[in-house]
Amino acid sequence: MEKNRVFSDxxxxxIPSEEKMPAIEWLAEQMPGGFFIYRxxxxxxxxxxxxATCDIFGCSTLEEFREYTGNTFKGMVHPDDYEKIQESxxxxxxxxxxxxxxxxxxxxxxxxxxxxxxxxxxGHFANLPGYGDxxxxxxxxxxxxxxxxxxRKRAEELAVALKAAEQANLxxxxxLSNMSHEIRTPITAILGMNEMIQREARxxxxxxxxxxxxxxxxxxxxIISDIxxxxxxxxxxxxxxxxxxxxxxxxxxxxxxxxFRAEAKGLDLEFKIDESxxxxxxxxxxxxxxxxxxxxxxxxxxxxxxxVTFEMKEIERMPDTGSVKIEVSxxxxxxxxxxxxxxxxxxxxxxxDTKRTRSIEGSGLGLSITRExxxxxxxDLKIESTYGKGSRFYFTLVQKIVDETPVGVLDVGTLVxxxxxxxxRKVFFTAPGMRLLVVDDTPMNLQVIAGLLKRTRMHIDVxxxxxxxxxxxxxxxxxxxxMDYRMPKMDGIETLSVIKRDYPEKYKRIPIIxxxxxxxxxxxxxxxxxxxxxxxxxxxxxxxxxxxxxxYLPADSIVMEGETGSVEEEELKKLPPVIFxxxxxxxxxxxxxxxxxxDYIFALKTYSESVDAKSDQLKKNVQDNDLEAFTFxxxxxxxxxxxxxxxxxxxxxxxxxxxxxxxxxETIDRxxxxxxxxxxxxxxxxxxxxxxxxxxxxxxxxxS
Length: 704
Hints:
The protein is α/β, with parallel strands linked by helices. Helix content is 51%, strand content 18%.
């Protein structure tokens, strides 16, 4: 090969320096990166190594480096990387047609101090006269760049994973929304139809059956709500919605929620409410009830016999914040929890002691949601449990005081009866002359809503699609519109968009309220952003619907009724004087429960007709010592007696029902005679009342 004459032959001479080395070698030592030469065959002996290479390996001298690496290229490379990078080098050489092309590999090395570093390696295969085939290599430490690159890669992978998780979460939310709608829609119809039955039924036992349907429907909704609430908690969208609330009404609602389950299992249900607690508080009533109802429901589910006790007691008044600290506890005599299972009790979808609990219904989310809700309210759930004997779940709750008046003694049974009666009779308002349009793709929902609202005396039109709604608005004028969100072909938001575009004046004037069976967090905000005036979730709560109607209908169109007591007073005047001359019946309670005089008299007739048969049943139950049947029948008598205002029989039946639950035959044998005696007297009392009422009614008709 012709000598390159660009460089002077003097470069191969010894330079005038302390190192006494050829100029070419001196230049190699000045390179900022590592440079070395090793044999291509055999033991990969190192023929030349510059000091920069020694520095990369943490060696101070060339001798130290040669000793540390065994003076071989193989000794330089991390043992786990050598075979792979050598194969890569050989493949690059074999595939290259360019004799001057350099191969490139990246591998790890182990420095003398034991740390692992990354290097990149640019090498070239050549034949060195006198030495044979060799590789000469340039290397550099790229550890920092490598780590930064890996960090960027991890960040990119995390971003991709996060995006995938968000998409999955959106998909889950969409699924939950659809599921919520699909399940809540038929429940809306069931509960709506059931409320119509409660309003129009005359026989007390039918009303009682209907109430059981309502409780079962509410229980089913609770399971659905658990799943949806868990989703909200997972996504951090659960928020407190605080307002003032009545403590006694919360207690009544809790009793209603768990009473049906407890009675079905023959459990004694005890409510102990501190008399000194304030009558009105400020907080998130719904979530407070949800937490406590979860605990009460669990206690009833996991208790086969014995007792469930709910207790609220005042711990501390905090004048500086105007608040009260309350300890809330639920104690049961159920199966208890093993110590080793305590850690798993809050796991979502978990079920402890599956052999004993496999038949118990529920979502498995109650305690998980309860703990998260309490955390949101600044509290924590604590547990005391003895396996096989029972458990106590308790927490403290701080609520602001709205009214410091002590709540006093709460007779839960009486409160439940009074609240049920008040709800059954109340006519909230009327708005004659107002026009309402209800849009829903489910015919039964239309029937239910129209039926529930007929008492308002409004003109109500219904339609089953967005397109039909647009046609109605084109031809008619309305004062209020309730519109379902999920409808085929054109949903509520799409329909609203067309109304905005085609009927802007009507859109500005007419309140349009969204109805949706979806309860996924963010739905309300979504509807308001879309332009709806307000939002009402399904199943429709008729009281909430009527509150919205009062809010958005013209004030001068609304006539409030049923709240001043005038309706009740008018109905009492229709009753004959004889009904007020005995101590067995309280007609005010009867009217309060039944709603009007005609219905009350009908209830009295029905009650009277069953006296003989029910008395015989109770006698036979006692004679046969059939405590289960006795407890059931005396419970039924308690309910029907409460409905007509037969207070004495109501109290006696309640005491005997408790005795039946406690298997207290001594009390039953002692007190049943007094009950049956007073019960028997009711026939003649009711007959005089009914005869007098019919005579009075006939006179009124004759005079008119």
